[in-house]
Specification:
- With 82 residues, the chain is mainly α.
- It has one domain.
- The chain has 2 helices and no strands.
- Helix 1 packs across helix 2.
Length: 82
């Protein structure tokens, strides 16, 4: 990097601008990678939360479904008898 920096500094202000832009690009690239990692971790946490919620909700919904089916069967059988 020092060799390329020395060559760029020979070009004066243009070389300094290129060095500055290179440093800015590297810093921004690292920051973007950091943000992508944070978003990925957040997405994984949300997925785990959704799995836990689904597990907690599935059992009561199954019981409600069975109860509703039982009531519907009773209503149908009472209409046939009546």
């Amino acid at each position: 990097m020092e060799g390329s920096t020395a060559v760029l500094l020979q070009y004066g202000i243009a070389g300094v601008a290129i060095i500055g832009e290179t440093v800015a690009i590297i810093v921004l690239w690292k920051y973007v990678q950091y943000l992508i990692g944070m978003l990925s971790a957040e997405k994984d946490a949300r997925r785990e939360d959704a799995k836990e919620t689904l597990e907690k909700v599935t059992e009561p919904l199954s019981a409600i479904s069975q109860s509703t089916k039982f009531i519907a069967d009773k209503l149908i059988s009472s209409k046939r008898k009546g």
